[in-house]
Amino acid sequence: MTNKILNGIRKIKPLNILVLTLAGIINAFGVTLFLAPVKLYDSGISGTSMLISQVTPEWCSLSLILIVLNIPIFLFGLKREGASFTFYSIYTVIIYSVSAYLITDVLPIDVSLVSPLAGTDLFLCAIFGGVISGCGSGLALRFGGAMDGMEIIAVVFAKKLNLSIGTFVMIFNVILYIICGLVINSWVLPLYSIVTYAAALKTIDFIIEGFDRSKAAFIITTKPREVCKALSDTFENGITTVDAKGYYSDSKKTMIYYVVNRFQVGKMKTIVHNIDPKAYISLNDVADIYCEKYADETELMLQKNNMSEAEREEFLDRFSEESDRTLVAFGIMGGIFGEGIDLKNDRLIGAIVVGTGLPQISNERTILKDYYDAENGCGFDYAFRYPGINKVLQAAGRVIRTTEDTGVILLLDERFWQREYDLLYPREWSDRKPCNIANVGKLVADFWEQI
Fold first, then answer.
1. pLDDT given for residue 285 in this prediction
2. pLDDT per residue as tens digits for the range 283-316
3. Could you report the per-residue pLDDT of 48-84, keeping only the tens digit for each?
4. How far apart are CA 31 and CA 52, in angstroms?
5. Mean pLDDT of the chain, nearest integer
6. H, E, C per residue of the chain
7. Highest mean pLDDT (candidates 12-16, 296-300, 421-425)
8. Higher-scoring residue by pLDDT: 262, 216
């Protein structure tokens, strides 16, 4: 345990400390200048601290209660969340607490009766207080820490009560606001506090996920070549196509799988419908679906567009052996994490590869395919299948990095059982087994029992 703590402390980065300092100051700014003066309440432990500070003697300040309530909770979650997270979180809460003290008791700012920026307008205070404190909380979460110990409590107790983490947090906050209403003998302020809670949650989502959160588009069309070319020329992203057939019409169609960010969705729909007005488009967020179903058991990470060097290091550092929670990361096949990284031993114990990795249709690929078709009739292999399987093998190769490593590799696509792919697998994969949604759980469990 001591070694794990020391290893976690060694991973602390100056950039994270700098951003967490800023996060604590921002959160204190939102709470002390907008919420506390008009007796609106934050959520979680922060909101609980605000209520306690209002009903206790003056020496029992918000700054003191924040530290008294949060730090024991973070220490309690040390084993589950790891040393780095615990250190970052305690540091952030201390900055939040000290900043709140400076604003309320040291700086020449009167926050005793009304907000110095929004006056007595409860709606403005609720909105701006929620957005600003949400910015602080979102930055803390994005850079490895937390502003509030509520997450630790939820992780520990939600499963025991057969609740999701989100439901547990919501119930806690509802109870908190009811208690606030009873204590102050008014329901106006607790109701406005719900507006604060909603504004903060939405802001946290934007900060953590980014404004370019990717969406998976499934496009059913009878003009796949034209649609793929237009999307490829416009966005320059990879495209996967699957042959399909209409159930009632019995006509041949093509399903195009394509990933865009939220700002590209409207343009993508316009391009597709200009080419094929009858095309059907469905948008899904795979990561959100997974997170909703397995939020109690797993911690989720997403590879983002244009990640900086610091963000890449932070992403890889999360694959540590010190956390008791299962970590699941969604990445791009053939992307920056597809090769050149070594997550040895138990840092990575499995990889799920979705799709065969075929490159997008382009003029270069078409020329290459036509050339090899004329040479030996294997144009599709050289232009598409070989580059695709290379990305698959690179992704799978992240699991086994040393002779002592053990892990599971799942290839999710029926095409992987075709003879053309069977000839391309390494000889070490000769004992592979077919799986489906009904038996994959048992096959994985049996594998680990044999180890």
1. 66
2. 776 566 566 566 666 777 777 766 666 677 778 8
3. 988 898 888 878 888 888 888 888 888 887 766 667 7
4. 15
5. 81
6. CHHHHHHHHHCCCHHHHHHHHHHHHHHHHHHHHHHHHHCCCCCHHHHHHHHHHHHCCCCCCHHHHHHHHHHHHHHHCHHHHCHHHHHHHHHHHHHHHHHHHHHHHHCCCCCCCCECCCECCHHHHHHHHHHHHHHHHHHHHHCCCCCCCHHHHHHHHCCCCCCCHHHHHHHHHHHHHHHHHHHHCCCHHHHHHHHHHHHHHHHHHHHHHCCCCEEEEEEEECCHHHHHHHHHHHHCCCEEEEEEECCCCCCEEEEEEEEEECCCHHHHHHHHHHHCCCCEEEEECHHHHHHHHHCCCEEEEECCCCCCHHHHHHHHHCCCCCCCCEEEEECCCCCCCCCCCCCCHHHCCEEEEECCCCCCCCHHHHHHHHHHHHHHCCHHHHHHHHHHHHHHHHHHCCCCCCCCCCCEEEEECHHHHCHHHHCCCCHHHCCCCCCCCCCHHHHHHHHHHHC
7. 421-425
8. 216
Both tokens assigned to 137:
């909380």
